[in-house]
Amino acid sequence: MGGCCPPMDLFRSEPMQLVRLIIPIESSHLTASYLGDLGLLQFKDLNAEKSPFQRTYATQIKRCGELARKLRFFKDQMLKAGFSPKLSTTRADISLDDLEVKLGELEAELIEMNANGEKLQRAYNELGEYKLVLQKAGEFFHSAQSSALEQHREYGSRLTGEESLDIPLLLDQEMSIDPSKQVKLGFLTGLVPREKSMAFERILFRATRGNIFLKQTVVEDPVTDPVSREKVEKNVFLVFFSGERAKNKILKICEAFGANRYPFSEDLNKQAQAINEVSARLSELKTTVDAGLLHRGNLLQTIAEQFERWNLLVRKEKYIYHTLNMLSLDVTKKCLVAEGWSPVFATKQIQDALQRAAIDSNSQVGAIFQGLHTRESPPTYFRTNKFTSAFQEIVDAYGVAKYQEANPGVYTIVTFPFLFAVMFGDWGHGICLFLATLYFIVREKKLSVEKLGDITEMTFGGRYVILMMSIFSIYTGLIYNEFFSVPFELFGRSAYACRDISCRDATTEGLVKVRSTYPFGLDPVWHGTRSELPFLNSLKMKMSILLGVAQMNLGIILSYFNAKYFGNNINIWFQFLPQLIFLNSLFGYLSVLILVKWCTGSQVDLYHVMIYMFLGPTDDLGENQLFAGQKTVQLVLLFLALISVPWMLLPKPFLLKKQCENMHQGQSYTLIEGTEESLQVESNHDSHNHEEFDFSEVFVHQLIHTIEFVLGAVSNTASYLRLWALSLAHSELSSVFYDKVLLLAWGYNNVIILVVGIIVFIFATIGVLLVMETLSAFLHALRLHWVEFQNKFYEGDGYKFHPFSFAVTDDDDD
């Protein structure tokens, strides 16, 4: 390319080179670090046959993995405590060895604090439960004692009064019982989860055959369980039993139901004393727990301030050692040998980085930079910015460009949003999209560092694509003269006026041209007439064919530039030319007929012209004639279309076969040139280039390609009619929402109905027209680019350039 114009970085991928680096061991780490900062070298794995554990720096990677584990532990602890790591872009002024010691100390301290805190918290929760048991069970004993005293008083008063003959008899019976035969009752107290209390009670009665007395009291507030440390609703239980066997059964049932048991004294004085002791101990534990939490919070705060720096350092070190593991040791084991791809323009930068690394590491020997010759296909690298990257991603989603083939991303920047806008044309909706996108662009610095949802992040990533889509939608909306389906006389008054009052209900025959033609876009008088739909259908359908044929021709022309660039004359003469002739003999001619019809105002039916061009090429055209000599032109074009099919199919396989035979003949007498190293590289990577030429396979491939193009010329042209269909659907939906929702609500002369109608209109516009229709038009524009446009020239069988760069580690958490 000449010096008069700046180079088009996106039209072809950057020229790449295969390089070899020989790096002394002592400067290898610093060299990798500087190359990672540069981010312009993609290393090849020279140890692919080795397992990860057999590689040179496996131990260092294991160390980095352990440090990463500790940092993840710190992050979990910080998130649980409500701390967030502070963002920082500065590097940590600490070596990996010092960081390993420091993280080990911090982890041990934090684990110890967690263990002590858990013990104290468990003790605190147990004492809390114990206090509840003392209070609730004490209330039961107190009420039982009061009830017993009351009964004794009543019994004593009855004895003195001698009111009944039965009393002396009962007294004698009670006094006659042997004290040695009285049964001693035992009891257990504790708490049981309320949801298990009924089952707990049933199992107790069944296990002891009813020989127990169970009392349960509801605890009003949820209790923190000492084991799970979760808030649980519980009941205090008190169970009386007789015998050791019953006690053992009850203990096992308590364990099964997760019921916590606590000691309890029958003596009321001891109960009061126990409550006071527990309350004092709770107060002490509360102070101790709070002090421990404060100390732990301060420690986590200190970690949070340095966390991002440490995390970045560990990830970079791990990435460096992963990369160094891809390098091979030389025979002397004093140097590392690296091979990789880099852009040609980065040669000076890489050499400077190697020189700086050698100086900074005090290495006596500098690294050696060598260029290698190879026939291996290099990776594809486009230098994009925040505007062009999203458009390039659209192309790469179909397939990464082959090395230095023409990149459709250049044209996609304009054609993709334009085709979208043809389907979405409404300058009111376009303004809404523009304002929504403007929000993302204005706040892009803040939003780029925030964690967004999946859909929001996808929308933010494509903000400049949506911006272009909205701008083109405003443009096509002005051409269609639609603002939420309402026409405006923005560029002057309509060129037509009604002949009489009823003309709007008739056809355009009732309109008379009284002024000059409307200067830009569609005349607003068409909206609302009966002939609006037939007129717009005809206009948009023909416009879709014109745009489709133009874009398909662009694709075929780009195939010429590809063939010219790679020196493939066979593709120029036997692929580009017949394809161009075939497409334009049929649909290029149709496009010319459309333009002629528009210019002359003819009433000729173009369907008939194209049909009878095939069915009756020699018949008289009659009323289907648009211009003089049309019949001769059609015969010539039909002949060219027919001859281009065998022209595309037959010569190329035979010429490729002859070319292959000549190549093999020439190889028999060619001197071997190049160094031993370059031969070794070629032998490693180019064995697939020496495969035997299979004529039948090539011929079948060419046959399929020919059939695909011939049939695709028809189907692809028809596919562009989706531009007309979706534009019509968008316009009609917009019109329905305006007429049947907004105007209908306005006609009721009721404020409430009007407000409801406006709300429904807004939500329908946003939900259907601005979200669903946008997505639909986006997907259809995507299909037109991937299938109808790119299959004319784009192979897309390359692979992306993935340089060793620390910028990648910012998005990786491993």
From TrEMBL:
- Lineage: superkingdom: Eukaryota
Q: What is its main location?
A: membrane
User: Could you mention a single GO BP entry for this protein?
Assistant: vacuolar acidification
- One Pfam family from the record: V_ATPase_I
Keyword Transport among record annotations: yes
Coiled-coil region? 96-123
Q: What does the UniProt entry say about where the protein is found?
A: Membrane
**How is the protein disposed in the membrane?**
Multi-pass membrane protein
Would you name any one GO CC term?
vacuolar proton-transporting V-type ATPase, V0 domain
Keywords noted in UniProt: Coiled coil, Hydrogen ion transport, Ion transport, Membrane, Transmembrane, Transmembrane helix, Transport
Spell out the family assignment given in the record's similarity comment: Belongs to the V-ATPase 116 kDa subunit family.
Q: What is this protein's function per UniProt?
A: Essential component of the vacuolar proton pump (V-ATPase), a multimeric enzyme that catalyzes the translocation of protons across the membranes. Required for assembly and activity of the V-ATPase.
Name recorded for this polypeptide = V-type proton ATPase subunit a
Q: Which organism is it from?
A: Morus notabilis
